[in-house]
């Protein structure tokens, strides 16, 4: 158990017209018969940071690929800023920047050239000052004349982001952005994402790094076996599904809990020096007052106490395994 991460300010609640992406009844079945997506409905707000959580193979990348036009759906429809993702593919792709997990470019191309080329692919006019700004923001300016093959893994990940931003998209998809990157780069990427959101860019990230969603997201969606299990405000999700624990540090160690105090919600540490009590913070009666009375009546003195709540990771595991918290 650990305290919840600091919550970043969320955008105001959305009205019916404030959803920049709408996914309705989306299905994807591959030729092999494998059903990657099962009637997915999802609406993403304009200007939010949305984290799509799921284990490997849960359907995250297939869903993102369908929205970006890289995977053709078997059924349902996708609207991106009012444009149909299949019928109006070009208009949709112009609005989207996609940062994939892998870099697939000519290794002997220069950094500056590949970013400028990405801008040109979408019909954007040449703008060396804009490209310079992106490269400077991503600490790539000093590498602008280097060939891609000479870049480190972290620099290549920055280059992926630069290419995705080159045509000034209003929606940015980050597919597993922290996979294989070090802690310093991960923090820098998080800071950059918040700067982009401040400029009005909608951010959607797929991840199985719970820390990433906990740090960055306004809302969280959980996908498992091609189905959306839940979409919720991050803080609301943690409040509704997160258990809280009260840890009581004892003045004197106990060999065992007295019968009048013992219960399924209360456990004694192996060294006998602390008790852990699990409770529902939303309940009218948490049972804490009664527990403290019982301890006092049993002559057990409490030296100190502290509370903590479930991390998003514990909530995620509980949802995927179908167990109530």
From TrEMBL:
Q: Which GO terms of the molecular function aspect are on file? A: ATP binding; ATP hydrolysis activity
Q: Which CDD domains match?
A: ABC_DR_subfamily_A
In this protein, which residues make up the domain named ABC transporter?
Answer: 21-250
Gene3D superfamilies in the record: P-loop containing nucleotide triphosphate hydrolases
Instruction: Provide the leader sequence positions.
Output: none
Q: Which InterPro entries match?
A: AAA+_ATPase (IPR003593), ABC_transporter-like_ATP-bd (IPR003439), ABC_transporter-like_CS (IPR017871), ABC_transporter_ATP-binding (IPR050763), P-loop_NTPase (IPR027417)
Q: Which controlled-vocabulary keywords does the entry list?
A: ATP-binding, Nucleotide-binding, Transport
Family membership noted in the UniProt record: Belongs to the ABC transporter superfamily.
Protein's recorded name: ABC transporter ATP-binding protein
> What is the originating organism of this protein?
Salinarimonas ramus
